[in-house]
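Table S2 (text version). Query chain:
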Amino acid sequence: MRLLLGSQTIAIVDGHSMLRTPVADAILPSTTWARAVALAPSLVSAGVLSGCNVGPIAASELEQASELLSLGGGWVEPIIELDGRPVGDGSPGPVWTALDGVLRDDLRNPDLTEEVPYKD
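Corresponding structure-token output:
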């Protein structure tokens, strides 16, 4: 995925395995972003992340991130290239894999969903 700043809700994973995302007034707020922030502590407990921080991110930190993530539409997508340069090793990373998994599980949680009575 190619990053277009200002058009996506993003998060970074810094060199200390900290998930970081701008505050909702600095990005396109989404329920996916809110759920990712709410579910991130489970990834800390699992040893995938060292923590989660919502706050300012400098443009230079994007270039140093081990992972860049796009959050929206119920999913998290890895951003593997920034300005023609690979992010991290250029492939989706372990935080993306784990966060995508917990978000997809969350979408299937019967306590948080309602069945839609579709008719044939």
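Notes on Table S2: The helical segments are 31-45, 59-64, 94-107. The longest strand covers residues 67-72.
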